[in-house]
Design a protein that fits this description.
The complex is a heterodimer of chains A (about 100) and B (about 170).
Chain A (H helix, E strand, L loop, with lengths): L3 H21 L3 H25 L4 H31 L13
Helix pairs in contact in A: 1-2, 2-3
Chain B lengths: L1 H21 L3 H21 L3 H26 L10 H24 L11 H7 L1 H11 L2 H21 L5
The chains are: A mainly alpha (about 100), B mainly alpha (about 170).
């Protein structure tokens, strides 16, 4: 019997993996993909809880998370193209203009 | 049997999640990410949310990943040279493990309680998941739905302006 805890632990594992990737990788596109992984971990726990509580609200929230992720993908990747034009690289260490 | 299937798909999801983080080439990371998305769509079907599974495949595995791979190919990114920064990896691993332990500790301490809604599995099968989502979206959540459409319009304009040659 699968309980809601199985899904919640899996979503916690995916979220931690995404955090690890965001903190260790240097390539901005890989960091972006790790953020998508974190968002998906959260989506899984939303849908699991909405199923176990018999409510539709969690799934509506996932719908909006996906909308925001699509907008984020469009704007974020356009930003990366603009970065690449300036620096010929998308390593995050190259972007140190605001570094103190 | 169902539990065995859950563990199999969960294993694939976690292994491809690890590959997203560790692969040297961004294209390999993107393809592993597709694998994770497909596994999550399987879980959505198991949780009786087939509309969400379809949206997951179409929006994430279809649109967003294609966009990411387009940008990787456009910028002609090669394989990353992994610099030896062991202290940052150790710190990040520590943080990730702490977050995981915290989440599992909280989960073990508490049962899932809350106000039970009126959506039963029988209702989902008789009425259809898409119709239930649509009813909820166009009655209770109409204003957020409209705001989401404005957000998408702003994102389209923003992407065009940012990617232009001379801003």
């Amino acid at each position: 019997m699968i309980t809601v805890h199985h899904y919640l632990v899996l979503s916690a594992i995916l979220f931690s993996l995404g955090t690890f990737g965001v903190l260790t990788r240097k390539n901005a596109i890989v960091i972006f993909m790790c953020i998508e992984l974190m968002l998906n971990g959260v989506n899984l726990s939303f849908i699991a809880l909405s199923h176990y509580l018999g409510s539709m609200d969690g799934q509506i929230f996932v719908f909006f998370v996906m909308t925001v992720a699509a907008a984020e993908a469009a704007v974020g990747l356009a930003l990366m193209i603009a970065f690449f034009r300036n620096k010929e690289s998308i390593e995050v260490e190259e972007f140190n203009l605001l570094k103190w | 049997m169902e539990l065995l299937f859950f563990y199999l798909v969960a294993l694939v999801a976690v292994v491809s999640g690890i590959l997203v983080v560790t692969c040297k080439s961004p294209v390999n990371s993107a393809i592993s990410l597709v694998m994770t998305f497909v596994c999550l769509a399987t879980f959505y079907v198991m949780l009786q949310a087939p509309f969400m599974a379809a949206i997951q495949i179409m929006v994430y595995a279809g649109a967003i990943i294609v966009l990411i791979i387009f940008v990787i190919m456009l910028l002609n990114l090669g394989t990353a040279v992994m610099k030896k920064t062991s202290h940052s990896i150790a710190g990040a691993a520590l943080l990730g493990v702490i977050m995981l332990l915290q989440a599992t500790y909280v989960l073990n301490r508490s049962a899932v309680t809350g106000t039970q809604g009126d959506i039963t599995p029988d209702l989902v099968t008789t009425m259809g998941h898409t119709e239930l989502i649509g009813r909820s979206l166009f009655t209770d959540f109409l204003l957020p739905f409209e705001i989401a459409s404005i957000l998408l319009l702003v994102a389209i304009i923003g992407a065009v302006v940012l990617a232009k040659k001379d801003v």
